[in-house]
Structure formats: structure tokens, C-alpha cells
From TrEMBL:
Top-level taxon in the UniProt lineage: Bacteria
Organism: Lentibacillus halodurans
Signal peptide: 1-18
A single GO BP: thiamine transport
Lineage: Bacteria, Bacillati, Bacillota, Bacilli, Bacillales
Protein name: Iron(III) transport system substrate-binding protein
Amino acid sequence: MKKSISFILILMTSLFLAACGNESGGESSDEPLKVYTHNDSEEMDAFVKQIEEGTGVELDVLRLSSGEGWSRMKSEAPNIGADMQIGMLHGFALKADEEGYLDPYKSEEWKDVPDKFKDPEGKWYGTSFWYNMLGINKDIMEDKGLDMPKSWEDLLDPQYKGEIVLPDPGTSGTAFLFTSTILQMFGEEEGWDYLEKLDENVAQYTKSGSAPAQMVAQGEYAIGITWDKAVEDFKDQGYPIEGTLPSEGVGYSLDVAWIFKNTDQPEKAEKVMDYLGSKEFMEKTAEYRSMVTKPDITENEELEKHFIDYDAKWASENRERVMEKWREDFSN
């Protein structure tokens, strides 16, 4: 009888401790940390491997373009189906903050990262930043006798009709960065006029921000509006593609990470966030990005001269209005 009572007490104690563990964030769980990302598969695979080796935390990653990811968050809220976002447009971090999706966490690993690259309350952190770039197929330009474009204005020249490919800003963060850059740089009235004229030369709008670089590299089109690393990767593989920064300047965006408020594994998420701010992870990121936010890893003052004073807050606040007009004018 005493043995039976002891067994029951031990069982009840075990169940109680397990329940407490679940209420405190589920850290006793062997479940992987669920992550959303907009990063390309190749680079994200490398990042995941690095994070898992550096933290011991297993990640379960779902890749969605930035537009798709934001739509998914809105449809799932308040019970978003991930613990973290690793890789997303800065503007969406600001919107996610406004919607109350983010869990603040002050990480000591991020102390030396400049304030402009992180939220003061620790709601989001920027690991790197990237920018728009033109990808040019040198062979096509030569074969067809096309002039090398040097500015955004040059792309309106009729000689490029049917030779330009760019992403759809409804699904691609790269494309929305381009669209909002044009509107900020030229002003809205002149900016929309520019986009309408550019549309006359556009052969195709792609879903992915990297797709134009691939299509230009493989000889389908002469010019792609894309982002820096996509061009550089194909160039490194030996494709006849060159990158050009238009003379008026280019927009750039932080690639940010955050912890979702509804996570049931906060300690694991915080451990990963700490690692994202480490020198070790930033050095790995620098293999895939031109610039990282931690000092003394990637310094390029000459490159930064090409960046416009891009207003991510304006882009965030006006995204829905801008996208509604873009769909009306260009999606039909």
C-alpha cells in the first residue's frame, strides 16, 4: 500500500513539474523552434546550419517572400505559426510592432551594433542590409547594340522595350524597395509617372526578387531590376552579368529578425537572437551579404555614397496605399 501511494505521489509530482515547464515557455519541449524567413534558400540553409551548430537549437524554417510572409502573419494573428522571424524587410518589422506581434528582448550581444540598426526596446534587430541593383547581360547588350544604362531615367528609353524584367512588389520585398525608392526619390506624382513609362518597357514581372538576376544571367532578358547579392552570385558563377548602381542612387533595407509575442519557446528564441548578434554569425552573414550591421566586419564607405536617404517608416505607413495603386495600374 505504501509503495502504491509513493508511486502515485511521484507520478503527480512529475505531471506537475511538466505542466510548470510548459507554462514557463515550453523549454523542456524537444520541438524545434519554428521560423519564418524571406531569405533565399541557399543562404538560409547556411544560416540555419550555423545557428544550430552555434546554439544547439533546432530550427524548422518556412520560406515565404516578404509579401507572402506578411499576409500570412496577418491571417494567423494573434496566434502566429512561428516563434521567430529571421530575415524580413525593415518596414514589416515596424508594421509588426504597430500590430503588437513582437516580443521585446534586450540582448547583450547586440550592444555594439549602432542604434539605427535595432529597436530601442529590443523588439527587432537588423543583421545586415541590402540594396537594389541593375543586373545587365553584357552579351545581349552587345549583340543587340543596346546602350549601357547608367541611371533610372535611362531605362525609359524605347530601345529597352521588352528587355527589362523586375519583380512584383506584391510578392517581392526587392520590388517594393524599388517602388518606394522611386516614389521617395522623385516624389509621388513624378514617381508614378516614371513607373507607368517604365511599364511600357517591362517584359515580365516576377514573383521573386532574385528571379530577374537569374533570367538576365541566363540570357532571357538584357536588364533586370533586382538586388545586389543576386547579381554578384551569378557573376561569380561565370554568367555574363554585370551589376550597375543607377546614378540617382538606390534604396536599401535592413534585413531584420524578431521574436513573436505568442512564442511558447521564449528561452530558445532568446538564445538564437543572442547568437544572431554575435561576431561569429555576422561573419557568416557577410559571406552572403555585402554589408552587416556589427562594426569592423564589412565597412564600405564608397558603396554607402550610392544609398539614398531611404525612409523605411514612410514605406511601412504607406505600403497598403502604394500597393493598391500599383495593383490598379499594373496588375491587370
